[in-house]
Fold:
Amino acid sequence: MAIKDYIRERFFPHLWCPGCGHGIVLNALLRAVERMGLKKNDLVMVSGIGCSSRISGYVDFHTLHTLHGRALAFATGVKMGHPELNILVPMGDGDALAIGGNHFIHAARRNIDLTAIVMNNRIYGMTGGQYSPLSGYGMLATTAPYQNIDHDFDVVALSTAAGASFVARSTTYHVQQLTDILEKAINHKGFSVVEVLSQCPTYFGRKNRLGSATDMMDRFKETTTPIGSKAKEKDPTLIERGIFVEKEIPEYCAEYDKLIERAMKKGA
Amino acid sequence: MTNNIRFVQGNEACVEGALYAGLDFFAGYPITPSTEVAEHLANRLPAKGGKFLQMEDEIASMCAIIGASLTGKKVMTATSGPGFSLKQEALGYAIMAEIPCVVVNVQRGGPSTGNPTHVSQADVMQARWGRHGDQSIVCLTASNNQDVFEMTVEAFNIAETYRTPVVLLLDETVGHMREKIVVPKAGEIPLVERLRTAVREGVDYHPYLPREDGRLPMSDFGDVHRYNVTGLFHDMWGFPTTNPGVVHGLLRHLNDKINNNANQMARYKEYYMDDAERVLISYGASARSALHVVENRRPRGERLGLLELQTLWPFPDVVVREKCRNAVSVCVVEMNMGQVMQAVKAAVDDPDKVFLANRIDGNLITPTDIRGILRLIQGRGV
Structure:
């Protein structure tokens, strides 16, 4: 199947700004899906609210555009209702980790077979450029005009601590790695988290004088490095890219099937 | 015959009704006085191959049942006041996206944390208006455990018929008291099953295009039709739009779907209403005390009658107006500060003949409470 068979052409042109990183994520995602030969009827995309979450309208899967922060809760219901489906959950950084933080932690804790894609552009773009928990200390935004005093947290560390069995990070610059990681994440039986550093040139970029979209992508190249590289030893401030966690532990739906067996035996 | 008889709490009668109706998936969170619904389902659902999830909070529970409903399951959640408040946004989503589900609220003292183990009926208006935006909702209630069973089944039937969430408002008294129920045999109460589209694979399926008879056929996630579901205003494909014509049309559809069928959904019971001079209107646990007053005063020559409402929303104004037409006075008996009384006043021909007999201190309103207020209304003092 060609990539464009996975797209709902009738709803294009999309609403993202020129230079937005989300288009690259869509691209990588579709290439991963196409490489895996997944059938469209077996694919569900559940998204939250924000520029990131509009991605679901553009793909020819079963799509569920939910409420701000709640994508994982809806997705849990879909997965438990029909466990054979492949469920992708793209969310924004504020969407997944601010208002959605609690659902994120518990979906990871359950290790339910969903693929969470955190499209991290460190801003609330759709509403015009307010700071998010991932914006970082010292950054500017419309609701942080005197520089942000909130520190961010490490999405990889958070996901790992919460119990996710697959945790990875890449960027919109590293689209080949991103595609490979997405393929592995979707294949993985358990809760997979893929953090994608993405650019919002319109708000985060402009407010913080980060230049054009391509300037911002170059910065992803300059400020990130593969896990455990020599460059990281030399400069600990570099952000690591790659797969941090990949373990085989009991998945929630499979555990639930065993629970049903126990319950039915007890009842008999 | 005897193994159909059970002696259970109202919460368990609700569980029996839900299972009878075909409940397949429940997601909930513990909250007094609804917790028993979750606990019983934690036992019963997996034993019949269904799924029970205790989610991390009330919001997640509501969202999870919506997700599961889209895979074709009959779904339910249960909560009380504070949890019902939390669920409002997602409940509005289910209304907007037209997703069948049942939301049980076993009312307790409020507002806020209120009185977790005490009764009230103060969430009636919240059930109607708790969400932002213009919309209508279906809300049922029951005063005894057999009716809890039947109204639970009815809730599922209405949810599937109209592709809408249904709120089932119980209260702490009915939820926790034990009473006999008779579980009907399979088939005795007709069930409405999910209406699925007849559109074949490869043909364009419109999730939000009503049939000629007004019903909206669904398609399960995972089946042959792929479509979008969103809480934004959407066209017949489910794709977001701000087109004024579409927005107006959808808003009208969501509201008319419920309001135009108010008569079909109006469930109620009447006692001694034929020649009633003074009508009592009540629902839930209050109706039990109200009925006691009517049955006690009738042999003494007082022409009292009771109209027990089982459908609270859409409010059965036509029924109420008709039944109260010849009444000298109408007394609404409830455990709140006059929520249904407001709706009754708006429905009857003469609002000045409507009075409130209420109790709001966390204790069940008694026949004595009601009689005392009736005497005042009748001009007979204390």
Notes: DSSP finds ten helices and eight strands in chain A.
